[in-house]
Specification:
By secondary structure, the protein is of the alpha/beta class. It contains 15 helices and twelve strands. The protein has a domain of 239 residues: TIM Barrel. It is globular and about 60 Å long.
Length: 361
Amino acid sequence: MVVQPTTTPRLSRTDRWKRRVKTFGLRVLSSSGATRLIATRYGGRGIILMFHNFTQDPRRDLDQGCRIGDFERILAYLRKSGRDIVTLDEAQRRLKDPAGRRFAVLTFDDGYRSNIDLALPALERFEAPATIYVPTSMITRDINAWWLGLTVLFRDRERVDIEPMGARYSCPDLDSKIAGLRRALAWVWGDFRRAGMLGPTFARHGIDLPDLVERAAIDEAGMIAADRHPLIEIGAHTVSHRALSLLDDADVRTEMADNKLFLEERLQREVPHFAYPYGAPSISGAREPRIARETGFRSAVTTTPGCLFPEHVDSPFTLPRQNAEYTEDGAAYTACGMAGLFRALASRGGSPLAGLAGAAT
């Protein structure tokens, strides 16, 4: 593979301008009556919010994760808006009840230590439950946590060579590190088979993925202790956190069933809720929702933006879920998502029923 000349990645002036305009627009919309108007069609009965890692300083982590202050503002906004923060089981019950109060569900993907160290104290203050979706290999420390590897690669080095990309970067400052990481993440998201190509790059730079996972993720004892907390429920997230659409039927079934069994043996209870890794790249059609149902789950969440409607009772294996991580202003971003703004944009004014067969995308 031809390696390109060394470049210094930068966010273009246009990109910076677009981000500032986006943030300003989100703040205006979230504080005005516009979101209430959008919510009349797209707001639904409830919403599932998605988080991953939490941090005190997203820029230190190269614009990754949810600022814990934003998370606390989101919880305060939910309470102020009159929404109940409920479990996934309660959400499914409320969708069946025409008189059920509006609600929000909190979900955390991957099982980071920050879910307990930073987010749990906030959950306790607001008496808010949450589900943490945990892959088996995050606990066993053999996950290909390529996203952690790329973050450390750019964070800790001024010169970054990624041979599979044919890229050679000079990243002397924080902005260039952030821009370089975004390019590398987008490269993997363009084809998830590329995630398996990064091992030699990490090895050459001295990056030990199991060590990164050990520092970033809860261990087995921590997972069990978290599940025993009255506000925390552990959910399933496959064995290896691969994009399921790339796998054959047998491997998809193994990814779901073995993860479910692993968690149930350790937690000594049923694990009824599941999250698709990466969302859309794990769903090739009807196959994955069918296997999730046959495996014994009662719900499966995607990353398709949208709110929950009574119609989702009959389609619990492709539930929409709103990303709540936006480092410029996570609270404003989430308020707009709760109104259904991002579903309205994604569907171009089409159906609000994300994840349902026959609904406009």
